[in-house]
Amino acid sequence: MRLSDLLGSEVCTESGEKLAHVWDVRAEAVDGGYRLVGLLVGRSALFERLGLKGWRAAREHGEKTRPNVDVVPWDAVLRIERGLIVVRDGTEPQRK
Fold first, then answer.
1. 31-41 pLDDT, tens digit each
2. Neighbours of 93 (CB within 10 A)
3. 31 phi-psi bin (left φ>0, alpha ψ -120 to 50, beta other)
4. What is the pLDDT of residues 53-90, one digit of tens each?
5. Range of the structural domain that residue 86 is part of
6. Quick one: three-class SS letters along the chain?
7. Taking the model in full, what pTM does it have?
8. Do 42 and 70 form a contact (C-beta atoms < 8 A)?
9. Cβ(41)–Cβ(21) under 8 Å?
10. Is 33 exposed, middle or buried (0-12, 13-18, 19+ CB in 10 A)?
11. Residue 49 or 24, more confident
């Protein structure tokens, strides 16, 4: 799977509730590579990706992750289809 397969995809629950669109991802470094841990979704994630909100200030204060971004945990993902990511019912983006 490529990052481009995820970016711009709509995220919805298995019962069909639309949550948001994916604008970026969050990953952790593991064993010389990276492991995907979350999907950055919604308007705040789009603004962050475009550099329009808070990223520069956070970096100046030594923060390594972007503040105030909605994240859908990767372990909530059930399946990925073209342009659609289906997550478990009850999944809500978490503000991080």
1. 999 999 999 99
2. 22
3. left
4. 555 555 565 555 545 678 999 999 999 999 999 999 99
5. 3-95
6. CCHHHHCCCEEEECCCCEEEEEEEEEEEEECCEEEEEEEEEHHHHHHHHCCCCCHHHHHHCCCCCCCCCEEEEHHHEEEEECCEEEECCCCCCEEC
7. 0.76
8. yes
9. yes
10. exposed
11. 24
Residue 8 tokens read as 């711009």
Work out how many domains the chain is built from and give that number: 1
CA angle 53, 84, 93 (to 5 degrees): 45
Say which CATH number the domain at 85 has: 2.30.30.240
Tokens (6 digits) for 69: 């971004």
